[in-house]
């Protein structure tokens, strides 16, 4: 039986996507890198989000240099097949470089690449964005390995069936590598900032920083960790249980209701 979405139409098939909670230790504790998506974008325009996006079919290339947990281990964490797991990890690394200028890669001797901000790096980042270059080609050209050990599984969300655009999104956590700096290079954002999770949530409550439920919920989860080390050590049970909320309209507002009963107030109208 086919599940139905809006207006009785069959629900859209969710696209595989990856997003990264890029973390650092600030003066007052844990901080996370957040982007505000430009208004008018077809999905989540004006919303605060993390770097991330859909998989590129070339993210599944098997000739990519790889260090850290193998795709089979990520497949166990995500409850998916090995190729999908490879695509998701590669998408997480690629999107973090595309949208934040941070590359989770290293040399064969184990060192993490320290600086990726030069003009030559920028040329390759732009080629990734235009899909003229794949992640595998970039790493091979530089003699680098993807460092999957720098990532941790954090959450798994699936867009509700009623939405016309749906994503099956795996959330990763990663520490900002020593020697690298996150840069506001995303053409899809009009603001980028490091914020304490509590500060971002306070702005959400004040109505000045709208965000979708997956972002606010993961920020709430991050509040439990005093620093990056604690956040990376606090990986969820595997395989992760996907969260797909349902929408509810009540006298006190519009809500996304999670499978465990948690209710998150919506800052955007319900889908019609």
Automatic annotation (TrEMBL):
Cofactor(s) the protein needs: Mn(2+); Mg(2+)
Ranges of residues in domain Nudix hydrolase: 14-217
InterPro entries the record matches: NUDIX_hydrolase-like_dom_sf, NUDIX_hydrolase_dom, NUDT19
Keyword set includes ATP-binding: no
Keywords: Hydrolase, Magnesium, Manganese, Metal-binding
Alphabetized CDD domains for the sequence: NUDIX_AcylCoAdiphos_Nudt19 (cd18870)
Entry GO MF terms: hydrolase activity, acting on acid anhydrides, in phosphorus-containing anhydrides; metal ion binding
Protein name: Nudix hydrolase domain-containing protein
Organism this protein belongs to: Blastococcus saxobsidens
């Amino acid at each position: 039986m086919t599940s139905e979405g809006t207006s009785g139409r069959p629900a859209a098939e969710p696209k595989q996507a990856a997003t990264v909670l890029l973390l650092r230790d600030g003066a007052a504790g844990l901080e996370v890198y957040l982007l505000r998506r430009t208004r008018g974008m077809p999905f989540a325009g004006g919303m605060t989000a993390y770097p991330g996006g859909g998989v590129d079919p070339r993210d599944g290339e098997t000739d990519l240099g790889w260090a850290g947990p193998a795709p089979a281990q990520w497949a166990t964490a995500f409850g998916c097949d090995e190729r999908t797991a490879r695509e998701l990890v590669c998408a997480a690394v690629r999107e973090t470089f595309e949208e934040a200028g941070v590359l989770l890669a290293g040399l064969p001797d184990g060192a993490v690449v320290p600086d990726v901000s030069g003009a030559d790096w920028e040329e390759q980042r732009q080629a990734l964005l235009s899909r003229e270059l794949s992640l595998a080609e970039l790493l091979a050209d530089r003699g680098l390995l993807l460092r999957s050990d720098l990532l941790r599984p954090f959450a798994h969300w699936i867009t509700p069936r009623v939405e016309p655009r749906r994503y099956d999104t795996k959330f990763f956590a990663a520490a900002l590598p020593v020697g690298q700096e996150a840069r506001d290079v995303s053409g899809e954002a009009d603001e980028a900032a490091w914020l304490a999770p509590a500060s971002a949530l306070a702005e959400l409550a004040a109505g000045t920083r709208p965000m979708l439920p997956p972002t606010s919920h993961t920020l709430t989860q991050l509040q439990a960790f005093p620093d990056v080390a604690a956040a990376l050590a606090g990986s969820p049970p595997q395989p992760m249980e996907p969260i797909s909320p349902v929408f509810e309209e009540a006298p006190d507002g519009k809500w996304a209701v999670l499978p465990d009963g948690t209710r998150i107030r919506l800052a955007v109208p319900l889908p019609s």
